[in-house]
Amino acid sequence: MKNVNIGFIGLGNMGNPMARLLVQHGYRVYGHDIDPNAIRTFDCFGGIPAPLTELFENANIIILMLPNSQVVNQVIEEIISCLGNELTDRNFTIIDMSSSYPLETQRNAHKLAQLGIAFLDAPVSGGVKKAATGELTIMVGGNREVFDKHRELFAVLGKQVFYVGPSGSGHLVKMLNNFLSAAHLLATCEAVHTLSAFGVDPQTGICIFNHSTGSSISTKYKFPEFILPQTFASGFSLGLLAKDVSMTKQLLRDRGIDTPLSNLLSEIYGGAACALGKEADHTEIFRFVAKFFDEERKNSNM
Ligand code: NAD
């Protein structure tokens, strides 16, 4: 067992496999989640379920893997009130690995620095599958020395670990990555429905895209694995992807910039999350796009 205790808050689709890897690598991991099912899974692989107060008593590194900035802010407030006067006495680091809003991250880093708490933003890409195998891509913002101190921890969770720059820059890159991902997923949905409308086998089309300039992680992975077989089981919800695209639009607006694609993607993914539910898998956007082809389908069946 390593002599490092970690507190892990947010044991959902990503948090649980990440925490499990840490346990397997000999860390003592204290975990907290508001969902009892998440806690049960965590308990099964050797994590130590703990209320927030106990978590802070035992761990000097706290990892957050929460849905959004609103929840991250709320948990940071809880951490601050739990730690009370003890704050500056302890060498304490909070690492926000959620996909949070970069401007909130900057505010959190500033607030925590005043209390003597180090803070890194270290969001991830790669999804549930790579979370389980420790092959995530991790992009880190914050103080470089604090990052260097936690390299060993990041190496357990990620295969590619990048230091990006000051606080918020990791979250900025993550947000933009998902903006790109949302754009090619949507474009591929329209392309594949168009293939079907013209009687061309989608499998054939996807195979050709993968040998051509239209290829992307959507054509290479999401369509063959989750969309064409209609399992829609990627483990990344539509609500979370809609959050990422709406954060992109919001960040641009906050800087007085209005772009057509950020508006359009935000509207379409937001509409899909309303229609299908936030908990739907993000690959189900394919089902949402189908409705634009309904009229054509009706006419061709007449
Ligand atoms: P999830 O909804 O499965 O997990 C979030 C967990 O946080 C849940 O178990 C929930 O109960 C818990 N939670 C919510 N409020 C809480 C609170 N106040 N205190 C303690 N726990 C609380 O989400 P996820 O898919 O694991 O994603 C987590 C983060 O990682 C998100 O920011 C997401 O955008 C990002 N992300 C997800 C993926 C993916 O493939 N799922 C990939 C990369 C990044």
In short:
This protein is an alpha/beta fold. It has 15 helices and 9 strands.
Helix content bin = 55-70%
Give the helices and strands as they follow along the chain: EHEHEHEHEHEEHEHHEHHHHHHH
Question: What separation lies between the terminal Cα atoms?
Answer: 69 Å
Silhouette: elongated
Low-confidence stretches: none
Q: List the total number of helices.
A: 15
The largest pleated sheet is described as: 6 strands, parallel
The gyration radius over C-alpha positions equals 21 Å
The chain-level structural class is alpha/beta
Average pLDDT taken over every residue: 95
Describe this structure in words.
This protein is of the alpha/beta class and 302 residues long. Helices cover 56% and strands 13% of the residues. It has 15 helices and nine strands. The protein has helices spanning 15-24, 36-44, 52-58, 69-83, 102-114, 127-133, 144-149, 151-157, 169-197, 202-209, 217-227, 238-254, 260-276, 285-290, 294-301; strands spanning 5-9, 28-32, 48-49, 61-64, 93-96, 118-121, 124-125, 136-141, 158-165. The strands form two sheets. A six-stranded parallel beta sheet has the order 3-2-1-4-5-6, sandwiched between helices. A three-stranded mixed beta sheet has the order 7-8-9. α2 (36-44) links the parallel β2 (28-32) and β3 (48-49). α9 crosses α13. The longest helix has 29 residues, at 169-197. The relative contact order is 0.09. The model has no long low-confidence stretch (mean pLDDT 95). The structure holds nicotinamide-adenine-dinucleotide (NAD). Nicotinamide-adenine-dinucleotide binds next to α4, β7 and α6.
